[in-house]
UniProtKB/TrEMBL annotation:
Molecular function GO labels: glucan endo-1,3-beta-D-glucosidase activity
Protein name: glucan endo-1,3-beta-D-glucosidase
Catalytic reactions of this protein: Hydrolysis of (1->3)-beta-D-glucosidic linkages in (1->3)-beta-D-glucans
Annotated organism of origin: Nicotiana tabacum
Membrane topology: Lipid-anchor; GPI-anchor
Domain X8, residue spans: 361-443
Cleavable signal peptide: 1-23
Subcellular compartments: Cell membrane
Enzyme class: hydrolase
SMART domains: X8 (SM00768)
GO annotation, cellular component aspect: plasma membrane; side of membrane
EC number: 3.2.1.39
Amino acid sequence: MAEKQTSLVCFVTVLLLIQVVESDIGVNWGTISLHKMSPSTVVDLLKDNKIQKVKLFDADPDVMKGLMGSGLEVMVGIPNDMLALLSSSTVASDLWVSQNVSRYMVKGGVNIRYVAVGNEPFLTSYSGQYQSYVVPAMTNLQESLAKANLARNVKLVVPCNADAYESSLPSQGTFRPELTQIITQLVSFLNSNGSPFVVNIYPFLSLYGNSDFPQDYAFFEGTTHAVTDGPNVYSNAFDGNLDTLIAALAKIGYGQMPIVIGEVGWPTDGAIGANLTAARVFNQGLVKHVLSNKGTPLRPGVPPMDVYLFSLFDEGAKSVLPGNFERHWGIFSFDGQSKYPLNLGNGPLNNAKDVQYLPYRWCVANPYKNLAEAANHFKIACSYADCTTLNYGGSCYGIGAKGNISYAFNSYYQLQKQNPRSCDFDGLGMVTFLNPSIGVCRFLVGVSDHTTSSGFRLHNNWISVLLIVLWDAWLFLM
Ligand SMILES: *[C@@H]1O[C@H](CO)[C@@H](O)[C@H](O)[C@H]1NC(C)=O
Ligand SMILES: *[C@@H]1O[C@H](CO)[C@@H](O)[C@H](O)[C@H]1NC(C)=O
Ligand SMILES: *[C@@H]1O[C@H](CO)[C@@H](O)[C@H](O)[C@H]1NC(C)=O
């Protein structure tokens, strides 16, 4: 009897230990930026904000170097276009592991915890072109990790898009029929290696893609459109989505699979519904919800293991195929300034320190020139620089034709590191010291490339400053 009771106590204790899972909030650090900050500034920013976990989309040597000795837990990534090779060649997987993992797993190196094999390889829009490579690539990589004696510390995962499963009610969740076999193999592989299932969840995209989607169901503030599913009531799309996945996993025999949220977030620009207020309300609601350890109706008390916000920074060179918002997911702007108040559990966000800005000057359309000829310059400037905020739904929409041209000129000029020739535009452009920003429409000043030789730049700068002062003075006197 006594023994039975002890074992019962043990059992309950274990159960409690399993139930009390603390989630960590990490971030995605993408690098498809037009203005890159030095990796060491970024790592300082992460540490300053007590962000312990960071997810990458590749294994960029500069970024990895910046992470060395930081102690941050890192998920490195393998792009989809490497999957075919890695699935067919153990030489390639050995090489990938040695060049991108082993090399950093040394004292004072990088604390690599996960390798993301592909990124959303099952996305419907890829029409299946990557899916057959995923499990064979993982098999090879697992063997390579084992050979390098790293299999215990480094886990392979596959960040999965939420369109891999579907259902109108969470409890009815299933994987897409054409994916069921592959996902079953994948999940069995993950399970036998002690890896979690990683999923990306985007209520913003549900809202963006469907005008009937109830607005308040996307957030975490209660809703007039709760979803009732048998005994369970869902008040937010995030929980509904997560439980759809949990039901789908249960259907293939893995209902207990630990889950990590690989990406979740809200953009601040480039679409109606993408703005600072919405992003703050969503992200803060999400963080509060996750840190409350409430879990979901299908997993009460068990929040996702980890949640990686998308994203750390805006990335101005990303494809706008999904929409103009794609370049505006950052909780920080490209220069490491927090865009809106957000508390990740450690108080308000701190901005990046010691950001090396280019000098405070801008390129605008010369008000004394006829801008009828500027259309082509506008187009070319915007094909290099990011002008997505000028479109309907963007923060610079409505600044007028001249404003548009100035914005394009300046974006290009900053991208060219303020090279004086890049503000020429056949004589239509001029450099100014007066910040041309209009209301919420910010005309940016670039950050300096840390690799530029500073001696040359300094000299160059003084000459341009002198010229600009003379030019501004002349305009003023006219
Ligand atoms: C290591 O990762 C980098 C960055 O993702 C990639 O360019 C490189 O090809 C990888 N190395 C090997 C040997 O595959
Ligand atoms: C911001 O976005 C939310 C929804 O995402 C929308 O309801 C709201 O009207 C937007 N605010 C502005 C000022 O556009
Ligand atoms: C400014 O540019 C945007 C994006 O190209 C365009 O939609 C808008 O109509 C332009 N505004 C004017 C006044 O030309």
